[in-house]
Design a protein that fits this description.
34% strand, AB_hydrolase_fold, Peptidase_S9_cat, 769 residues, 47 strands, ten-stranded mixed β-sheet, Peptidase_S9B_N, Prolyl oligopeptidase family serine peptidase, signal
């Protein structure tokens, strides 16, 4: 990067001399090798990696499409008969399609968009060039279909909801609800007090944008969000109250319509704010044309749950609601006739009840409720009595984490769930499938392989497809029986000959002790495909310490589809590790980051890198860089300022550098509510004067997730501290800017110049020969 005040294609550079390292050469071939391992390219080197089954609704059959050396192949599986065969003759179908389309069709690149199997009449339906087509699976003849009318164009389809019995349709028009009797055609207005700030039946206004100014574009209509009672006579809907909600603004510097920068607004609450969008709940009687206000709320839109009808009941609804700061989760019950509300149970935590873990499911036939809780220190399944709110049974227990409930077999009172950490001497993050009875008995491991398992059940839940792998073990896909996990047949095994031919090696998993000297933490190491153990390599730390996430990949696909391997190809050792405070482990492990996001796990990362360097002497710990996006962008900038003696170069993209500017719900989970002094203390702007190394700040100007204000404020603090840094603002890019070719190259160049000590290929263009 040029060390001048020059502006070059959106980059503003502030001078800083490169690290005093031995100059190295880097070539176009190095960049091409790195490009080869970008997500969109490396996929061309692997085949038969996974199986995504499309199950029939009733039959125990499915089809799937898989990438092979020929191209895309289609297979059909009958689980009951334990048979796998080609779904159809692809050569013959390609001929039929060619005749129908009037163009040449490749049999292993069939243009079958939005393909649907219709088992009742043994046909396929798909779209091609905005037309709908049908294939007779018996003859492979192809027919063009007349597109069915999507119902009368009464209102926009996103604003319609039909009752379960088909008699009524409700729609939103001009902020109010209207009802139509589908049998008589009669319409009537259900509400009359709606307006642009009081909207009935509205979905949450997440990133609900309006283009301001001379080229004004109004916000698109929010999706209709209503819930019908089982007998189709009642309807639940919230009224969205925006009167006190505040707007955030973005500035589109390069609009299509004008040379004037364009302001864009959207509703967004910041941490600690009370002036937020509210939800007011109502039940409407469609037949009697009346309404009942549910006696709860108004509640803040960012924490509101959804009221659900209780099974076949037309009188009872339930909703799980959380408080700001997420210190509790409460199950409420409402009477649809009177609107009266009572509390069924309330879960409370000294830190937070994690919305990412506290999964729930109603069992209306038995008046029970399944609830996931960390109350004993690990995420486990509990069975509740819905009438009394009392715990009937702790279904699972032990030092492992339940991730998800996959299926509840209500008839046999059995739960299928995924979990990690139960099996000894295995990476605790590896996901396995289990079954257990409601009373906690007969817990069975259904996927015994020491690997990460991706599960896809049949519609009847008698079978499931299991694709299992690790970063150091290629993937295998099998069909299993749900009752005992027995493998019925092998479906696919990854073909990675082409990938291995590049010199690529599996990332190496590792485990070290955290800073407490007791807790195991896990990561992986990436080496370049032309790795030479006799050379010295700078080290790059790929980081994301958000408490809701695990950055280290566990599957084979995650091991080669990432941004770390391409960086390694340019002459680096890249590591990623999940330190104390991140997800997937015990409550105590994750709570390390509560009110402590500024810790960023850096002490664990530094300890891991130093210990790895003792084992692998080719790792040069005098040249360590770090990069990350979003929460990882916060980490990267913070690390280079918090530990200037260790981290010398950082690339921070879309960083939420001050949690007071972030979307309210995320920091309020982990930093508590209301806002306290720790918010100020953990702002990156307070560390600006510590910067000694090289820092690239990058952001998209249309990022409605992490607002670019945080990066601009960070730049402002660095300027006031007299520090040199680099800034890249990507025009018209949103939060996904880190995946753009231009930013990818900018990140490569930054580490090549400042950490590797080589002259980067400044004008190299990804995607061009």
């Amino acid at each position: 990067m040029h060390r001048s005040g020059k502006i070059i294609i959106g980059l503003v550079f502030f001078g800083l001399a490169a690290l005093q390292v031995q100059a190295q050469d880097i070539t176009k071939e190095d960049y091409q090798r790195a490009e080869q391992f970008l997500y969109q390219n490396v996929n061309e080197l692997v085949f038969r990696v996974d199986v995504n089954p499309h199950w029939a609704e009733v039959q125990r059959k499915f089809w799937y499409r898989v990438d092979t050396r020929k191209g895309e192949e289609y297979f059909f599986v009958d689980a009951r008969e334990e048979k796998k065969q080609s779904f159809f003759d692809q050569e013959k179908l390609a001929q039929s399609l060619s005749e129908s389309f009037g163009e040449k069709v490749d049999p292993y690149d069939l243009p079958l968009s939005r393909l649907e199997w219709k088992p009742k009449d043994e046909s396929l339906e798909f779209f091609h060039k905005d037309k709908k087509w049908k294939v007779d699976l018996g003859t492979l003849d192809v027919y063009e279909l007349e597109e069915e009318e999507e119902g009368a164009e009464w209102y926009d389809q996103s604003q319609l909801s039909e009752s379960p019995d088909g008699k009524w349709t409700v729609a939103r028009k001009d902020y109010n609800l209207w009802v139509k009797n589908n049998e008589t055609g009669e319409e009537y207005q259900l509400t009359e007090d709606g307006n642009k700030e009081m909207i009935y039946g509205a979905s949450q206004p997440w990133a609900w944008k309006k283009q301001e100014g001379p080229n004004e574009k109004e916000r698109e209509d929010l999706w209709l969000n209503v819930s019908w009672s089982p007998n189709s006579q009642k309807l639940f809907a919230n009224k969205l109250d925006l009167r006190k909600a505040k707007l955030m603004y973005l500035l589109r510097f390069v609009p299509d319509e004008s040379f004037r920068a364009q302001s864009v607004s959207y509703y967004r609450a910041l941490p600690g704010e009370d002036s937020v969008a509210k939800q007011i709940p109502y039940v409407f009687d469609i037949v009697n044309k009346s309404r009942t206000r549910i006696k709860a709320g108004p509640y803040d839109d960012l924490i509101a749950g959804s009221w659900n009808w209780h099974g076949d009941s037309n009188d009872t609804l339930y909703m799980l609601i959380r408080e700001r700061g997420y210190g509790s989760a409460t199950l409420l019950r409402a009477n649809a006739e009177s609107g009266a509300v009572d509390t069924v149970f309330r879960e409370v935590s000294d830190t937070y009840v994690d919305p990412g873990k506290s999964e729930s499911e109603y069992l209306p036939d038995t008046d029970e409720f399944i609830w996931l809780s960390e109350r004993d220190g690990w995420n486990h399944i509990y069975l509740y009595d819905l009438n009394t709110g009392e715990v009937k049974q702790q279904v699972t227990r032990g030092k492992f984490v339940v991730y998800d409930i996959e299926h509840i077999d209500k008839e046999n009172r059995k739960i299928f769930f995924t979990a990690g950490g139960r099996e000894a001497d295995r990476d605790p993050y590896l996901e396995h499938l289990y079954s257990v009875n409601f009373d906690g008995s007969d817990l069975r491991l259904l996927t015994p392989e020491n690997a990460d398992h991706n599960i896809n059940f049949s519609s009847g839940y008698n079978y499931f497809v299991d694709t299992y792998s690790r970063v150091d073990r290629k993937s295998t896909s099998v069909l299993r029986r749900s009752s005992d996990g027995k493998v019925i047949m092998k479906l696919e095994e990854a073909d990675i000959k082409d990938l291995l031919a590049t010199g690529w090696q599996h990332p190496e998993p590792f485990s070290v002790k955290a800073r407490d000297g007791e807790t195991d933490i896990y990561g992986v190491i990436y080496r370049p495909s032309n790795f030479d153990p006799n050379k010295e390599y700078p080290v790059i730390d790929g980081t994301y310490s958000g408490p809701q996430a695990v950055r280290t990949p566990k599957s084979f696909a995650g091991g080669y589809q990432n941004s770390d391997q391409p960086l390694a190809e340019l002459g680096f050792i890249v590591i990623t590790v999940d330190g104390l405070g991140t997800a997937g482990r015990s409550k105590e492990f994750q709570d390390y980051s509560w009110k402590n996001l500024g810790d960023i796990g850096s002490s664990d990362h530094i300890k891991a890198i130093k210990e790895l360097a003792e084992k692998y002497t080719y790792m040069d710990t005098s040249r360590v860089g770090i990069y990350g996006h979003s929460a990882g962008g916060y980490d990267a900038a913070r690390a280079v300022m918090k530990h200037p003696d260790f981290y010398k170069v950082a690339v921070s993209s879309a960083g939420n550098h001050d949690h007071r500017i972030a979307k309210a719900f995320w920091p309020e989970i982990y930093m508590d509510y209301p806002e306290g002094p720790h918010y100020e203390e953990q702002s990156n702007v307070n560390l600006a004067e510590n910067l000694e190394g090289h820092l690239l700040l990058a952001h998209g100007d249309m990022d409605d997730n992490v607002h670019p204000t945080g990066t601009i404020r960070m730049a402002d603090a660095l300027i006031k501290a007299g520090k040199s840094f680099d800034l890249l603002i990507m025009p018209n890019e949103d939060h996904g800017m880190s995946g753009t070719d231009y930013f990818t190259k900018a990140r490569w160049n930054y580490f090549v110049e400042h950490l590797l000590g080589a002259e980067p290929l400044r004008h190299y263009q990804i995607g061009q020969d």
